[in-house]
Amino acid sequence: MTETNHLIVFTRYPEVGKTKTRLIPALGAAGAAALQRQMTEFTLKRVEKLAQQQDRLNSPLSVEIRFAGGDRSLMQDWLGSRWSYQPQASGDLGERMRLAFQSAFETGSKHVVTIGIDCPELDSATLAQAFQALQDHDLVLGPATDGGYYLIGLRSLIPELFSGIDWGTDQVFRQTIAVAKAKELAIATLAPLTDVDHPEDLPIWEATQA
User: In this structure, which CATH number among 3.40.50.1950, 3.30.497.10, 3.90.550.10, 3.40.630.30 belongs to the domain 5-208?
Assistant: First the structure.
């Protein structure tokens, strides 16, 4: 049976006033929504590059966009018909990720990686490294410099990784590692990268656009 690599991209429809709200003081509501749009499109270009480089992966790559806000029609009008679109579940971030992983494994995926669109330093090589790590690790994490993580990958559903975590704090990575060690998982970590969440992070985005 062919092993299937599956990438889940979490994003939000770029509705003014409801996206990148922590950047509204610096960019304004319309500017923050525009950045959400631009960062999503930028991330998907990196994903497209990975999909075109199958030699980096040991099996084909499928991609799913899990969206909040808007609807399937709006998402498809925006980003095109090549992607699979699913609305994010209700609940906190952990519950939404758990259900996304569960769905992927239930439909036959073997190596599943989830990312957001907030990390412009995340390139196709790092994505490929994450899938390669799942060949012989149970869990792969990409630590973010704010104490969270920009990427998580699994080869089976481990629900405990998504509950009891203080989402949105600088404890997320540390708490997730603690759960993984308690379950004696084989853990791989990627290079630390910076999410663009606050005004002081904007130079990271600007540097990738130069």
Answer: 3.90.550.10
